[in-house]
Design brief:
By secondary structure, this protein is mainly alpha-helical. Helix content is 80%, strand content 0%. It has helices at residues 2-29, 34-39, 45-55, 61-73, 87-122, 127-141, 144-158, 171-200, 203-210, 215-226, 228-252, 258-267, 271-299, 301-308. Helix 5 (87-122) crosses helix 8 and helix 5 (87-122) packs across helix 13.
Amino acid sequence: MRRLILGRLAIVVPTLLAAASLVFALLHLVPGDPVEMMIGENAQPAARSELRSRLGLDLPIPEQYATWITNAARGNLGTSIRSGRPVAAIVCDRVGATVALALAACAVAIIAGVALGSLAATMYGSRVDRAALLASTALWVTPSFWLGPMLVLVLSVALGLLPVAGSGDAAHLVLPALTLGAAMSGVLARMTRASLLEAFSDDFVRTARAKGASPLRVLLVHALPNAATPLVSVIGLQFGAVLAGSVVTETIFAWPGLGRLVVEAIQARDYPVVQGAVLAIATATVLVNLATDIVHIVVDPRSRDAEQE
């Protein structure tokens, strides 16, 4: 197990380096001159030269890359063109809101997905099972840019139960969390159903049933804990998708997180902020996947068996 964990840790640095390299390439792959996009085509040549020098765009590409990687490794993500503040400080101000939204969305997805998948597995082959599969598929494929406005129309405008957008108390978090967690709940429901059906066929579940254990006890005590190992991997992978999907959801609900920061920076042509925010999201995704791999190795007995072999 220790060897497997060290192997996962060894992959982190090259992965983060690749993510930082892709973020650096974003600025240089954008069609046109980034400086003109930031300050406009009618700006004075002196202003263009000053901004190009401040961004380091007057240097050769390899030197720009080396400077970007070195500064990013030190936590220096540059300075915002719009506000003049350090990009790292701006990202730190927004990261808490994105983490709160992602955790809330995961909580919604885990509760709804595991419940729906458990219901489908315990009533395998019935109409309830087919309805649960249909519901999970619908949740999985429904895009957040459509689901979000629909939830606003129903729960906010028509019923007046929740605020439309913005941040403040916990009520403002409900609609974004539901929107962001819907697709993840569909994936978890199908994975839970498949894992439980496999667990139900194991000998220890048959033994529990033969001893007279109730269906609820068989599900909660015997089957579900043993079906949790693949769910851990799915939750970790989906958490990364939640972070990436927060761009659309945060924009719809005016949630002050990294996703909305990216959109605002693109609209303001503040490319250092775009680079810093995207790098933060990519880094968080890599670290979450690393944590998921480690947890999977720890809880999966087959990992310990692999080490002994």
